[in-house]
Amino acid sequence: MEVRFQVIRQQQNSSPVFQTYLLEVEPGNTILDCLNRIKWEQDGSLAYRKNCRNTICGSCAMRINGRSALACKENVGSEIARLQKTRSPSGEENTIPEITIAPLGNMPVIKDLVVDMSSFWNNLEAVTPYVSTASRQIPEREFLQTPQERSLLDQTGNCIMCGACYSECNAREVNPDFVGPHALAKAYRMVADSRDQETEKRIENYNEGTKGVWGCTRCLYCDSVCPMEVAPLEQITKIKQEILKLKQASDGRSIRHRKVLVDLVKEGGWVDERKFGLHVVGNYFRDLRGLLSLAPLGLRMISKGKFPLSFESSEGTQQVRSLIEAVQALGAKDS
């Protein structure tokens, strides 16, 4: 079948333009197969990265029809079926299906589909993604792990550093300090590694401002595009749980936000907004500056009749409390 490939062409520091290539392909052909044919048969100047062709190296990550993926993993048939491009809006059956290919996001373009991944690698280095060297100071024996200890590293160990999650990260797009989901997924691997001797120090670093785990917006895009099912958001959540075990509610606004939210839902079935602001921003009336910062908002709410004068617990409060306590007990048992 004939497919139209719309490929974004771009030189460094220039505006992107679409270039169209028509290709006769089979449904089972991968996107990388098609790019290779375009380069070999039609346009040798097209630039993109590739290596293993077997979903191992991560080199060929790019945006395919608007989402980041590996070109060696996605095929023509599944892409056409997913976007239902075999029919035009008017219902004509002979419309040529179209596949759009663009470079990864959140990274500057070098040429065409090749991006500069310097920020990606620098942010990975920032979380110190290797076992602490202190463990190498005992030369008499190896640092062995039980199968159970090793199994904790399996999921994050599957990461191939393709950059798909980083490309789709909304938090990274608006916050240049955020290290990214790839880095924090690797960070959890170190937290979970029984051989590492700097766990508490790591947790302190990952808890810092919005460049660590609290910078994540929990949009789930990283999980949805990861080709290896590493589930970066899940790993970020695990780091947050480790932070909450070591920290008190008064240690920081991000931690108070998490703990106060759970405590208020346990108390009343849903969030008492009056207490939420006072406890999180005002630190249980201990942060005078925080309390004063709430005053303008509170006055506007009162003037517009939006400030709740009372709070009524939900009818299912006891069931909600029981569910939360059961989950917390299960988490404590697993840890």
Explain how this protein is built:
The protein is of the alpha+beta class and 335 residues long. The chain folds into 3 domains: 2-113, Ubiquitin-like (UB roll); 117-246, Alpha-helical ferredoxin (Fumarate Reductase Iron-sulfur Protein, Chain B, domain 2, Orthogonal Bundle), CATH 1.10.1060.10; 254-334, no CATH class. Helices cover 44% and strands 10% of the residues. It has a 5-stranded mixed beta sheet. A two-stranded antiparallel ribbon has the order 6-7. The longest helix has 18 residues, at 317-334. The chain is globular and about 70 Å long. The termini are far apart. The mean pLDDT is 89.
Question: Can you describe this structure in just a few lines?
Answer:
By secondary structure, this protein is an alpha+beta fold.
Radius of gyration: 25 Å
Uncertain spans, ≥5 residues at pLDDT below 50? none
Secondary-structure content class: alpha+beta
Shape: globular
| CATH architecture identity of the largest domain | Orthogonal Bundle
CATH class of the largest domain: Mainly Alpha
Compute the number of helices.
15
Distance between the termini: 54 Å
Helix content: 40-55%
The CATH homology group name of the largest domain: Alpha-helical ferredoxin
Number of strands: 7
| Series of H and E elements | EEHEEHEEEHHHHHHHHHHHHH
Find the CATH topology of the largest domain. Answer: Fumarate Reductase Iron-sulfur Protein, Chain B, domain 2
Q: What do the pLDDT scores average to? A: 89
**How many domains make up the 3D coordinates?**
3
Let me know the largest β-sheet.
5 strands, mixed
